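Intended use. Records like the one below are meant for learning the mapping from a protein sequence to its folded structure. Do not use them to infer anything beyond what is encoded.
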Amino acid sequence: MADEFAPGSDDSVASRREERRHHDRSRLIVDVLFDGKDATGIASTKDMSAGGLYMNTQADLPEGAILSLRIPFGVDQIVVEAEVVYTNPRRGVGVRFRNLSASDEAILARELLR
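Structure written out for the chain above:
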């Protein structure tokens, strides 16, 4: 599951990744503000699910790094802790949400259905 949010290029690799995913991904593109021990910045998402997201960034964020994410959705926003579970150096990272509140879960579910 460490590469749950890794973009697939090979069909066999992509199908193995699909089997490990717990949530369907949606192509939801928003700007995310991230803050971690080693880097802070703004990144754009490539896709998102109820469990996490992939964001495009050139920041060096190692697997296992814990980030605070602020994800705006119009008048609503989600603030959540996330763990880097996949890294594609100088291109992006996949993160898994940690301790997503019920209210944030509802906002995310609504946005994923749009």
